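Notebook p. 47: complex prediction with hypoxanthine.
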Amino acid sequence: MTPHNEAKPDDYADTVLLPGDPLRAKWIAETFLKDVKLVNSVRNCLGFTGTWKGKKVSVQATGMGQPSAAIYIHELLDTYKVKNLIRVGTCGGLNKKVKVRDLVIAISAATDSTMNNRFAPFTYAPFADYELLSTAVEMAKTRGFTSHVASVVSSDIFYVPDGVKSYGLLPEHNVVAVEMEAAALYTLAARFNAKALTICTMTDCLVTGEEIDSGQRQSSLSEMVELALDTGNQF
Ligand code: HPA
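Predicted complex, structure tokens below:
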């Protein structure tokens, strides 16, 4: 047990999907998994374990932003010794190449968080696990999904004052989308020698103002969750 997690030592599977929203964690567990058990409800940051295609898998909400996500991720790695973490979330597009509904499979994550300043005088480059990444990319291709293997920026600020301009030159360096958790996930996974990946559906474009509608949102999220579950089942 930890201050934020009441699960018992073997409650989590080796592979854990990480949505931000606790109700999305519940939806994933109830919609996709069999033999589901609630393993954590401290602060309503829900965690569940069940099976997907016969294999044990968990889903744990992280809350929004890196400080919140880092708490749950650190404890999953340090206390519960989980091995594979796959964030499933949404992101905002930073260039016109990525369209709403497209998947962004984050190979690396820039950040404005101060969390990694302890690496000074170096600038740490948080990166995805290659095996998880290549498995997800191949599966996405087979399923005919439009996906972009590119960098995201994990921002600490949702309501940026200047729209896409707030991200400076990042969009010109193939940083195609903004979300709020991947950099902390990748940094902690590296620290604990675990595998991590972030898969996001692009829901709103900061350049064009285009947004996903609610029907598309549901079907895109379902496709992304199945992709993440199938990817996790390979490990
Ligand atoms: N900013 C940060 N995170 C996001 C966004 C955004 O515009 N859209 C979806 N997740």
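Notes: Helices lie at 22-32, 66-78, 130-142, 182-191, 214-233. The two ends are 25 Å apart (CA to CA).
Next step: compare against the earlier run before touching the bench.
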